[in-house]
């Protein structure tokens, strides 16, 4: 099947092999149904393109509120699971691309520690931040998928070698403990992370859920906790994330394209040229959107002095921010509503998991998010599963198919 990140530029490209995580899924007995839509180029084409849109697939729809946002970039993976098209899916995350669409589409999204799962065969953005994880309707499904895809991969050698040391003997299923909240120290991070689509609905729901967590044995550390320099962390232009990511994307996408058996494009420059030459097909310029982010990445020239300084800055922000907060308060996780902490997890390579937590007055879903330091998936699973089992908030979508939706019925005749 074509891997295109929603772009016609890669239509017809031929990869030499399955992605590492797909190989593991097949060995575990999974049936691969297909590939989902995605925000084109992982939302790295233009700031004006809405989440969930791509030239190849059009606009993905939130199955709960068709006019609402889907978030991205793994929007199709979340929509397909939420709408019961598939049992489970995979998403890729650099910054929020699993946690955010799972939050917006009322499903479970588990973003693993960078290196816990292989990125081999996945169209890259940043080897420093990219990770692959499950999107499912339940925490237990996410854990079963996680167990199938974690582990060392010689084609993603350095990252998976580092991540392999975190995998517990016996896998992660053993941490599906309904009493997993007992004795866990949960840091409640409120400002400026307590923001979602409808604050009048989400904040009361969040407070109710905190009471449930406490009743189930969790220890809530709620003394005006602050992540140091959080305003800088949440701004990719101030944290250095945008500078480093653009350079990393150009380097890594060029390597990926050259490894393909065949492809209409072999470099980022080729992609930009394809879009210009196929403006109507790709909705470029007068036909729709721009490609200013791709163009900004193209003018970078590797990991130079500025990029190295920005990477070091993000490492310091992570060390002085989330790591210091968790160690000083002996926390097992931080807790917030929605997906607003995803950037905190992204720049440090940390794991996070979001679980359905409710619906606002317009029917728009929102989740509760748990995150921790590298390799703490076992604790996060216990906490997330304990919360899910105590609340069971998720409900399936009930909207009729949108008016633009059509079906085709195929009849198969037995020749006998």
| Count of the separate structural domains | 1
| Average pLDDT score | 94
End-to-end separation in angstroms reads 33 Å
- DSSP helical segment count: 14
- Per DSSP E runs of 2 or more residues, the count of β-strands stands at 10
Largest sheet: 8 strands, mixed
- Note the overall shape: globular
The helix-strand sequence is: HEEHEHEEHHEHEHHHHHHEHEEH
What is the helical fraction, as a range of percent? Answer: 25-40%
Give me the CATH architecture, please: Alpha-Beta Complex
Low-confidence stretches: 406-416
CATH class: Alpha Beta
- Largest sheet, spatial ordering of strands: 3-5-4-9-10-8-6-7
Structural class: alpha+beta
Task: Describe what you observe in this structure.
With 416 residues, the protein is α+β, with helices and mostly antiparallel strands. The protein contains 14 helices and ten strands. It has one domain: Alpha-Beta Complex (Amidase signature (AS) enzymes). It has an eight-stranded mixed sheet with strand order 3-5-4-9-10-8-6-7, sandwiched between helices. It has a two-stranded antiparallel sheet with strand order 1-2. A hairpin with a 5-residue loop joins strand 9 (352-359) and strand 10 (365-371). The longest helix has 24 residues, at 305-328.
Brief overview, please?
The chain has 416 residues and is of the alpha+beta class. It is built from 14 helices and 10 strands. Strand 6, helix 6 (199-215) and strand 7 form a beta-alpha-beta unit.
């Amino acid at each position: 099947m074509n891997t295109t990140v929603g772009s016609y530029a890669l239509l017809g490209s031929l990869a030499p092999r399955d992605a590492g995580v797909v190989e593991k899924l097949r060995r575990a007995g999974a049936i691969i149904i297909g590939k989902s839509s995605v925000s084109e180029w992982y939302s790295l084409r233009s700031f004006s393109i809405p989440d969930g849109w791509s030239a190849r697939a059009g606009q993905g729809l939130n199955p709960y509120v068709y006019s609402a946002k889907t978030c991205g970039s793994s929007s199709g993976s979340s929509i397909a699971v939420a709408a019961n098209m598939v049992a489970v899916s995979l998403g890729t995350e650099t910054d929020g691309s699993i946690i955010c669409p799972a939050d917006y589409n009322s499903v479970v999204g588990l973003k693993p520690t960078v290196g816990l799962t292989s990125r081999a065969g996945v169209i890259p953005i940043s080897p420093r931040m990219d990770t692959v994880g499950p999107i499912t309707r339940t925490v237990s499904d996410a854990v079963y998928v996680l167990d199938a895809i974690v582990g060392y991969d010689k084609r993603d050698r350095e990252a998976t070698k580092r991540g392999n040391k975190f995998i517990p003997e016996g896998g992660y299923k053993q941490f599906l403990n309904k009493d997993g909240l007992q004795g866990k120290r949960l840091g409640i991070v409120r400002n400026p992370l307590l923001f979602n689509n409808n604050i009048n609905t989400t904040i009361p729901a969040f407070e109710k859920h905190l009471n449930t967590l406490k009743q189930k044995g969790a220890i809530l550390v709620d003394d005006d906790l602050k992540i140091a320099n959080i305003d800088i962390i949440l701004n990719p232009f101030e944290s250095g994330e945008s500078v480093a990511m653009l350079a990393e994307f150009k380097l890594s996408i060029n390597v990926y394209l050259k490894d393909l058996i065949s492809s209409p494009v072999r470099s980022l420059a080729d992609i930009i040229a394809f879009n210009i030459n196929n403006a109507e097909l790709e909705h470029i310029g007068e036909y729709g959107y721009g490609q200013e982010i791709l163009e900004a990445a193209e003018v970078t020239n590797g990991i130079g002095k500025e990029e190295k300084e920005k990477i070091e800055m993000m490492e310091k922000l992570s060390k002085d921010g989330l790591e210091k907060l968790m160690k000083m308060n002996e926390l097992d996780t931080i807790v917030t509503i929605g997906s607003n902490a995803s950037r905190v997890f992204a720049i440090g390579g940390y794991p996070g998991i979001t679980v359905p937590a409710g619906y606002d007055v317009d029917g728009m879903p929102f989740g509760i998010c748990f995150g921790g330091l590298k390799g703490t998936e076992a604790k996060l699973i216990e906490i997330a599963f304990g919360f899910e089992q105590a609340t069971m908030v998720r409900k399936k979508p009930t909207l009729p198919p949108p008016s633009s939706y059509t079906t085709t019925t195929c009849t198969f005749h037995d020749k006998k």
